[in-house]
Amino acid sequence: MKGIVFAGCSFTWGEGLELYSNYSSININSIKRYSYNFPDLGYFMPNSHLKFIESNRFSRLVSHHFGTFDLVTEKNGGNHSTMLTHIKKSLLDYGDDIGLIVVQLTEYLRGLKVHDNCNDECCSKDLVRMVEDYYAYKSGDNDEDKKYYHDIIEKNIQEEPDYFLKSVGKSELNKFIKNLQEINNETKIPIKFIGSWLESNLPIENDFYDNNLITINYKDKEYKTIADLLSDHNSELIIANELEWSNNWHPNLKFQKVIAKNIINYIEKNNLL
Fold first, then answer.
1. Average pLDDT over residues 98-120
2. Is CATH 1.10.3210 correct for 3-110+170-269?
3. CA nearest neighbour of 161 among 190, 191, 129
């Protein structure tokens, strides 16, 4: 069977799963004292931790079930822009050996960038942070950086900044979905979705998402998003519920198996591989 590309954020990457390894290199006392802090890049972790994560996240459970391989980005986290980059690179590197793409949607406002003083990445600024600083300064925080971004927004944005932020996010999200639909049309590779862990109702205007959504069945209930599932008193599926000292709210080993089972069932039911 052909390989599967999995694109998403830290929920797909498997943040926190290494805490179940019981390796001596897991510094539990430090985590208890300072909380769980994941480095920006996964390869800053011990290789043993990375290997444990790779072996236990839902992408590997699915690929092993079908006797194939899974492709997940090396870096923990992600937004819709980095997902698209990962998908395109995977298709370029593996070509016809890819048979399915599974996309886990994340916060739709994450990763929105604007350029400050230039047209290159060197001066790109996080739009969410700028808007937050705008309102913080307006509320009395006199920090110079916040004043700087407050003044930029005042000068360049005519509408309410929060509304502007959401309209940009909506536009970029729908552009992302459209790009995926174009990839599907061009390559004929099925693209399927797992709903966001944060929002139950994303402002998606294209039915390509709804028509290709993998719902999650758990305890005889069907959920359209991870957010719906977790909000329905299913806290036993998060790491912090089992390892309270971790204060980590990502999917635990049980949740990885739940997601994997639903993807496997969907694939088999629809003869995707």
1. 84
2. no
3. 129
